[in-house]
């Protein structure tokens, strides 16, 4: 990126693109990244390959955990970008490869049944080094499937 | 299963088979279930499709969570089988579809690099209704990649 | 209790009384139990003896964890009472001594400063055997000090 | 502290003293800090005021959480001191007031019965900014009462 490209908007687009196009496991899961106004969410259509419990045709708990971890980490990074002055954005971009999940809790509320799964997140603690997010997974009917809480390293 | 088939050994074989052959997401990840003596572990060879961070070629955090959740749940069920008298095994088998993860914590210790990933678990609390496991993920060199703690509903 | 005393209202009053009057540690912390309509909350006035970090005069993290655990467990029990038919209440009361926390996560959002601390909880998963609650701690100005998530055994 | 006093040994003694003498809540609980060779542990004798469940005379879950949080945080700080060169110790001491718990999970394994409770911790992830510990609580007979996992901010 040339220096002129380090606007918040461009860095956000770059991070979303990185998650969507360059993380093979997100593609394997069939994750779509939907950006609207000031928020981002993940959408994953049901696919038989994501089945955990074949007796009941429900999502594998690992898929739920994967979606919650992904939306939590992405939200933490995008929020950090929004709180960073443009002249400090190049340094933030340099740190991207070192950002990652420190720990995560998933609470499974009900069986993961549905045609489309939607993962959302909100920041509950934003520091310059560590952010904490709460995440949720719903299906297309609004059934609440899981909660998550994740702690992410930003620097 | 006829009544004669409800020995602990046969129920264990049946549960392992269920996890290995009938959970499509475990097959998508390439999970192998290795039973040795009294213990069970998961092994997953590195595959590019499991990549989370392409800049560093490391495992997606969701893969780590999936493996820890799977070995924790499987270990909780197998331990319940071992503690159940044969005459009560049919009732336990009937409850299998309702068993599942209540909550899980994952602690990411270091980047998920390696050629082979091994997931193990041990029971830390075994009740008739709820079990709690601690899980670990290592690579083929013995590097400790992640810890997990999971609470599982058995009835 | 005579049989006539097993109404939901009386059992709720009995459980709250048990937490308030018969748990010495809650009294040591100075916990007040405030019942209003359909909800219950804990209130604890600042007291120097609850100080964790003397350099900054903030609440000890253990006090925060204690309040979140207490309101989570109490809410889980009261909700179970509300969902139990009167004829089954005596059996529920018999199980009270065996109810307890299976696991809890606390997220510390900001320093525990204030004159009065208020702990609240809501059920996110209610089963007959296990309930999961989310808990919050605020101070008198509405500053959000901590989140909690707890899994409670009911039977 | 004069410059000469910033040896690892003296900083460790100072931190332990801070936890033991200047955190009123630790004194309220009756916590003793026992340093032996390279390790530290907490010891708390049973006291009726710590009772959570009076029907069974067991420790309040909040006491367990308090002890695990305290030993985890203390261990994280002491380990950071040991990994810091003497010339950087003054900067570390300056940051002490800002160190604290980010999040913690407690797993309650069995009722907290006993005459003496012993809390220990070990580091599972040590970074310059964040450390993760696993903690344990036992009684004087070696019964394992609880596990904890805590993430601590160091800078």
Notes on the protein architecture:
The structure is a homotetramer of 155-residue chains. Chain A is an alpha+beta fold and 155 residues long. Chain A has a single domain, classed as Roll (Thiol Ester Dehydrase, Chain A). Helix content of chain A is 32%, strand content 37%. Chain A is built from 4 helices and 8 strands; from the N terminus they run ααββββααββββ. In chain A, the strands form 2 sheets. The first copy, chain A, has a 6-stranded antiparallel β-sheet. In chain A, α1 (8-21) runs antiparallel to α3. The longest helix of chain A is centred in the middle third of the chain and has 22 residues, at 61-82. The first copy, chain A, starts with 7 loop residues before the first helix and ends with a strand. The mean pLDDT of chain A is 94. Chains B and C meet through β5 and β8 of B and β5 and β8 of C.
Q: Return the average pLDDT of chain A rounded to an integer.
A: 94
Total beta strands of chain A: 8
Give the low-confidence spans of chain A: none
Number of helices of chain A: 4
Terminal-residue CA separation of chain A: 20 Å
CATH topology of chain A: Thiol Ester Dehydrase, Chain A
CATH superfamily of chain A: Hotdog Thioesterase
Strand order of the largest sheet of chain A: 1-2-6-7-8-5
CATH top-level class of chain A: Alpha Beta
Helix content range of the residues of chain A, please? 25-40%
The proportion of residues in beta strands of chain A is 35-45%
* Computed CA radius of gyration of chain A, to the nearest angstrom: 16 Å
Order of helices and strands of chain A: HHEEEEHHEEEE
How many structural domains can be distinguished in the coordinates of chain A?
Answer: 1
Q: Using the alpha-carbon principal axes, give the shape of chain A.
A: elongated
């Amino acid at each position: 990126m040339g220096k002129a490209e380090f606007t918040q908007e461009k860095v956000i687009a770059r991070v979303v693109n990185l998650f969507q196009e360059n993380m093979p496991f997100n593609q394997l899961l069939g994750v779509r990244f939907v950006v609207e106004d000031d928020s981002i969410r993940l959408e994953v259509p049901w696919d038989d390959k994501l089945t955990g419990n074949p007796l009941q045709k429900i999502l594998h708990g690992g898929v739920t955990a994967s979606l919650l971890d992904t939306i939590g980490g992405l939200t933490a990074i995008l929020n950090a970008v929004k709180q960073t002055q443009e002249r400090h954005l190049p340094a933030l971009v340099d740190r991207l490869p070192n950002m990652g999940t420190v720990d995560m809790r998933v609470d499974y509320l009900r069986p993961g049944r549905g045609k489309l799964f939607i993962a959302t997140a909100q920041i509950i603690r934003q520091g310059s080094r560590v952010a904490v997010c709460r995440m949720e997974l719903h299906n297309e009917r609004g059934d609440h499937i899981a909660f998550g809480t994740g702690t992410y390293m930003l620097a």
